[in-house]
Every structure is written in structure tokens, then in C-alpha cells.
Amino acid sequence: MAAHEESRGQVERQMRELAGSLAAFRHHPCLLFVSSTIQAQDVVTLRKALGEQQVEHLDAIVASPGGEVGAAYLVARELRRRFARLTVYVPLQAKSAATLLSLAADELVLGPLGELGPLDQQYDEKQKADFPLSTSRLAPFKALEQLQRVAADTYDELVTRILEKSGMRPFEACSKAAELTSSLYGPLYAQVDPTRVAECARGLELGMAYALRLLRRYRPDLEEKAGRKIVHALVHAYPSHGFILDLEELRDLGLPARAPEEEEGPIVDALALALVEYGTHSDLIALAMPRNSAAARARRRRAPMHRPDVEGLGTPRTRTGESSAN
To answer: Is the pTM of this model over 0.85?
Structure first.
């Protein structure tokens, strides 16, 4: 256990150093935002990490499988209230609620292993077993779409076969096909819970509403041009919650993103490998300052034992026994 914690500490120091390298290259403060599950307490930790920082441009390294969309919205709002420009780097994964956070960025940079994900909100569905099952709120609608498609195909096939085999007139054939289709699929439609469908619809609308607000406030050019189309696709267009939205997919979607520049590439690649080793059960929210900035010099005077190249606040929190969030 001690060896494991020592190894995790080494990886954490490596990520801080890499964030410091990016800050030194870009001449901007660089935020490490690594969250196993984005939640409201991350906003408090973020505020502590940022301190009094409120400069022109912030770079943020975002890594998270997701979490609460409301909390992700608050994190994005906190960053944009403080910084006139925001660049988000995604070395590995920024899925679901982390994708929502990324929409607030003026510039989005995906590494070779970087990926965003759909915004179909997850929820815990009660099961007969002792534990809930995390399920996409889009699932009931996809099930209804599939059922509707199969029922329609069955009806069309029955009409054709009845006309060919029985000699009935078209109206009679259609009525008979409708009766047979209803007997086949009516019991399935009867199992649809309208309350559950309504709850899922509200959950999806919540993600869309937050996404559209972030685009309208912080990317008005994009929101006016294709915002609603992009957000609708992020919520409805993909077959699974874990679908990989890589650089090529984001460009096809109309969401501007770029690959790391030549000098950024090694840093982003090293961050991706460090995040794989770090795992998904600990958080690290910390700020690295450019080496020669006045803020970095002042902070070094207050805390001389800190490393000279990376300054950070924030303590990793280890969460045990939590399921993967949105």
C-alpha cells in the first residue's frame, strides 16, 4: 500500500512538472483539473487552487470521466468569470460532464489519445440486485425508436404479403396488418413507463440547457453559427454514452478543435501516459505558474520550500467505492 501511494505521489509530481512546462512554454498559468467525478466540492477546491488569480489567459488540462452537469457548469463559470480567454487541453479523456466544461473554452486542444464524449446524462436505475445500474437517460428514447422502426417494418411487410397471398383489397389488407402488428407489439409498448420517459427527457434537457448557455455566453460566434446543431448532436446523435469523440469527429461535428503544436506535443503525450498511470480514483486540482511571472516570484517568496518550476495548490482526494459517473 505504501509503495502504491509513493508511486501515485511520483506520478502526481510528474503531472505538476508537466503543467509547469506547459505554463513556461505558453507564458500563461496552467490549471491541472483532474477529477474522478466532477461534483460541487470541486468548485471549492478550484477556488482555493486559483487563489486571487485573475489574468487574461488561462490554460487548463482537463481529465475526467464525467460527473454532475451542474457542477461542471459551475466550474466552467468560475473559470470564465476570472479569465478572459481559456484554452482547454485534453490529453486523455474529458467525457460527459467534462465535455460540457470543455465547451466553455475559446480553444480546444486534443492530444493523440484525447477524446470527449456525448452529453446524454447518466442516472442510477434501481435494479432487482442490491446495487443500481448507471444508465443513459437517452436509453428509453433509443428503445422507443428501435421499437417504432421494427413495428413499422413489420406492418409494411404484412401489408405486402396479405395483398399478395389473400387477394384482399388494400384497405382490408392494411386493417388486418394493423391488427396483427398491434397484437405483436402492443404488449411491448404497454411496458413503457411514461414517468421514467419524462424524467429522462428532463435530464437530457438539463444537459442541453447548460451547454447552450455556455456557448451563448463564452462562444457566441459558434453558438450563433451552429450551437444548437452541435449540442443536439452531442446529446442525441451517438449510440452509446462511451462513444469516442476524437479530433476528427469534433471537426465533422463543427466543434472547433486542434492538435497540439510541435512544441506542445511531447508535454501532452507525457500527460496522457501519466494520467493512465494515475488512474481514475483520485483528484488533482492545482495551478502551475510561468517560471518568470511576477505571481510565481511572489508565491515563491511566500513558500520557499516549493519547487522553483511548478507552484500548485490542491490536495489529491482518493475516493473509494464510487462508480464511474457520467
So the answer is: no
117-163 per-position pLDDT tens digit: 998 765 545 544 554 545 555 555 555 556 567 778 888 888 888 88
Amino acid at 269: D
- For 61, phi then psi, to 5°, come to -95, 115
**Amino acid type, 285:** I
- Residue 173: count of CB within 10 angstroms of its CB: 20
Degrees, nearest 5: CA angle 279-280-285: 100
In whole angstroms, give the CA distance from residue 116 to residue 98: 8
Do strands 122-125 and 133-136 pair parallel, antiparallel, or not at all (unpaired)?
antiparallel
Helical H segments across the chain, by residue range: 2-26, 40-50, 69-82, 97-102, 139-166, 170-190, 194-218, 220-222, 228-236, 247-253, 265-278, 294-302
CATH number of 2-117+244-302: 3.90.226
Residue 104 per-residue DSSP state:
T
What distance in Å separates the CA atoms of residue 85 and residue 182, rounded to the nearest whole number? 57
Tens digits of residue pLDDT in 26-44: 999 999 999 999 999 999 9
Rounded to 5 degrees, φ, ψ at 205 are -65, -35
Instruction: Count how many residues are written for the chain.
Output: 326
